Amino acid sequence: AQSVAQPEDQVNVAEGNPLTVKCTYSVSGNPYLFWYVQYPNRGLQFLLKYITGDNLVKGSYGFEAEFNKSQTSFHLKKPSALVSDSALYFCAVRDISSGKLIFGQGTTLQVKP
Amino acid sequence: NAGVMQNPRHLVRRRGQEARLRCSPMKGHSHVYWYRQLPEEGLKFMVYLQKENIIDESGMPKERFSAEFPKEGPSILRIQQVVRGDSAAYFCASSQGQVNTEAFFGQGTRLTVV
Fold first, then answer.
1. Count of alpha carbons within 13 angstroms of residue B30, beta-carbon side
2. Contact between B26 and B4 (Cβ < 8 Å)
3. Span B91-114, pLDDT tens digits
4. What are the start-end ranges of the E strands in chain B?
């Protein structure tokens, strides 16, 4: 069965510092991986995806993610955090057999000025 | 191109009533997914539908919950005889269906059972 795990409930960084939000996955076959962000009382917004190709994927709002097959990880990164990046971040994997998206438990990112 | 539209945004029901949540997918999308989010928790998959078909309902409670996506009109998530534990945010997402495509989410319906 496909699954993703986000080992940190919360990540705190200072504004201007680099940030990393961790995600590990477990799949059979090729992984199709996604990152989403959720602001309070809003739906999820798509940030980026890894399907194939370059291990470094660039997405919206200056975010990028690094796919690492040997470590089965897909960590979300940003070189310089903004206070407005504070939100709930979800990693997801596509279940190949059914097509549904399976989400991690989410990581709250807190960026302090 | 309008995004995924969910209505109502907020729904209050008394225990024992029925709740109907509607989701209109993005134009050109024929695949719809429903998720439930409890406070301080992640997204729990409920059901995946294609036009007139249920593809995966492994996350749906066995009783009181049903979903449909008719040939015409929005997808409906129906909860009969609601209980307080049904209070949650329900999100709908749509996609074109291929495994390499992302899904787009609606703003959610926040159901409160009093």
1. 9
2. yes
3. 999 999 788 889 999 999 999 999
4. 5-7, 10-13, 19-24, 31-37, 43-50, 53-56, 65-68, 75-79, 88-95, 104-105, 109-113
User: Which residues on chain A are in Cβ contact (under 8 Å) with B105?
Assistant: 36, 43-46
Chain A residues with a Cβ under 8 Å from any Cβ in chain B: 32, 34, 36, 41-46, 49, 51, 90, 94, 96, 98-106
| Residue B101 one-letter amino acid | T
Query: Do residues B77 and B67 touch, judged by C-beta distance below 8 A?
Result: yes
pLDDT tens figures, B32-66: 999 999 877 789 999 999 988 999 999 999 999 99
pLDDT of residue A9: 95
Residue A8 carries which side chain, given as an amino acid letter? E
- Cis status of the peptide bond prior to B8, with omega within 30 of 0: yes
